[in-house]
Amino acid sequence: MKEVIQKLAQTGDEIYAKVCKVISVDIENKTADLQPLDGSAEIDDAYLMTDDKNGGVFLLPEIGSLVTVVFISKEIAVVVNTSAIQKHQVKIKNVALNIDASGFLLKKENETLKGLMVDLISAVKKMKFTTTSGTTINLLNLTEFDTLEARFKEFLN
User: How far apart are CA 69 and CA 87, in angstroms?
Assistant: First the structure.
């Protein structure tokens, strides 16, 4: 798709936009069928994402929501905005953010924010100290916290 858009951008065809209602969505192919509000013919297979191989932004619109679709040629349309979404995905190289109604996933390589938080809470629950005469001296699982600190720093920059 990326190559097609690049070639079409060089043709000089006039680009225009329409507001449409989402009729159906094909998640696998990242396309949608749309009905323009101006009463013109239905638009089949409008792209929801320009290039899914290298990352980018993907918005999954809700059926019945309104979208803005831009025509980069007479045959190719791309959805550029939506009034209601089911899912939002952003991928930049090895970092991904996925958001839907169930929550969100923040992932960098094989590490997730959820995994880090679960491990942190687990380490807090296992905290043990040495004491002398009622005075706390050392945290016995300090190395576990040092490892978690390094993981958080790597994950969050």
Answer: 18
Calpha distance 8→137 (Å, rounded): 69
Q: How many CA atoms lie within 13 A of 97 on its CB side?
A: 8
> With helix as H, strand as E and coil as C, how does 49-89 read?
CCCCCCCEEEEEECCCCEEEEEECCCCCEEEEEECCEEEEE
Do 144 and 124 touch, CB atoms closer than 8 A?
no
Tens digit of pLDDT for each residue in 18-34?
999 999 999 999 999 99
CA dihedral (65, 89, 71, 75) positive or negative: negative
Place of tokens 């994950």: 155
Residues in the chain: 157
Pairing of strands 66-71, 95-100: unpaired
- Taking the C-alpha atoms of residue 27 and residue 62, their distance in angstroms, rounded to an integer, is 12
Tokens at residue 22, please?
A: 């989402």
d(CA 108, CA 155): 6
Global pTM value: 0.74
Q: Could you report the per-residue pLDDT of 93-113, keeping only the tens digit for each?
A: 999 999 999 999 999 999 999
- Phi, psi (degrees; rounded to nearest 5) at 103: 140, -150
The residue type found at 133 is S
